[in-house]
Specification:
Blueprint: H1 2-22, E1 27-28, H2 29-36, H3 40-52, E2 56-59, E3 64-67, H4 69-80, H5 89-99, E4 102-109, E5 112-119, E6 133-135, H6 140-147, H7 151-160, H8 174-179, H9 181-187, E7 190-193, E8 200-208, E9 214-223, H10 229-233, H11 236-249
Antiparallel strand pairs: 1-3, 2-3, 4-5, 4-9, 5-6, 7-8, 8-9
Length: about 260
């Protein structure tokens, strides 16, 4: 019986961590209860355990929860094994300084994008920060990954993807999404026009290895109160040049 109880706690803990990692912002206990279906006392006990282990962080000001520092540390260790140390923080700083835009480095973790590093001179409260995750179908980074998937990988993705409509411009059908993937491969970059948040636009380009396999992607994004989509698109050459330079460190021979 004790082993069954421990297993239940582990499963519920994983469910809570997964919820917090995938959510765009912080969540209250009530919201966690509603999303997981766990009762209030069980949720409180699990959150207390996770906070004690630094897997969850509690903000006393608004009584909300988010992923904790230990979880982010684990994620960083996993990312480090991908040898992305060849992508330097200075690369992101250079792009931010040259373009004036926010910069983020993303990797694909199963069917989502996880952002491993960022340089954000123009914060936006809803935007995903380091360690956060976004969907593939409605972000520029995600579209880059979709464009460079094999047919088998893409079929597996669309088999399980919910393709949620985040804004009125979000594409939610496989046919519409796939229609633009060839252009992304040909042009070397993808665009997200207010598809994740109403007030945010983004572009992204891939980091490729010597076999033209995608390792990661870098995005430039900006709140529309700071710059327009046309101003962001003017930064495509700088973005593509930087990702080509980084790809060269992985042995990729660029013909751009």
């Amino acid at each position: 019986m004790s082993r069954e109880i421990q297993s239940s706690i582990v499963q519920k803990s994983v469910a809570v961590i997964n919820l917090l990692a995938r959510h765009k912002g912080r969540l209250s206990q009530t919201e966690i209860v509603q999303a997981t279906g766990f009762n209030k006392s069980s949720t409180h006990r699990i959150l207390s355990i996770l906070i004690g282990q630094e897997l969850v962080e509690y903000d006393e000001r608004d009584r909300t929860y988010s992923t904790g520092p230990l979880l982010i540390s684990w994620a960083r260790s996993a990312w480090g094994k991908m040898d992305l140390s060849l992508v330097k923080d200075q690369d992101l700083r250079d792009l931010a300084n040259e373009t004036g835009m926010n910069v983020a480095l993303g990797v694909r973790v199963e069917h989502t994008v996880t952002f491993t590093r960022a340089n954000v001179p123009h914060p936006y409260r809803l935007a995903v920060k380091e360690g956060g995750q976004s969907e593939l179908h409605n972000t520029a980074v995600g579209k880059v990954f979709l464009a460079h998937m094999t047919d088998e990988e893409r079929n597996a993705y669309f088999k399980v993807a919910e393709l949620e409509k985040f804004t009125e411009t979000t594409l939610t059908s496989r046919q519409d999404i796939e229609a633009g993937l060839g252009e992304i491969r040909d042009n070397g970059f993808a665009v997200s026009d207010r598809e994740e948040f109403y007030q945010v636009v983004g572009i992204a380009a891939p980091i490729l290895d010597h076999d033209n396999r995608i390792l990661a992607a870098i995005s430039l994004w900006i709140p529309l109160r700071v710059a327009t989509l046309d101003e962001l698109l003017a930064c495509v050459p700088a973005l593509v040049e930087k990702t080509a330079e980084i790809s060269g460190r992985f042995g990729q021979l660029s013909d751009r």
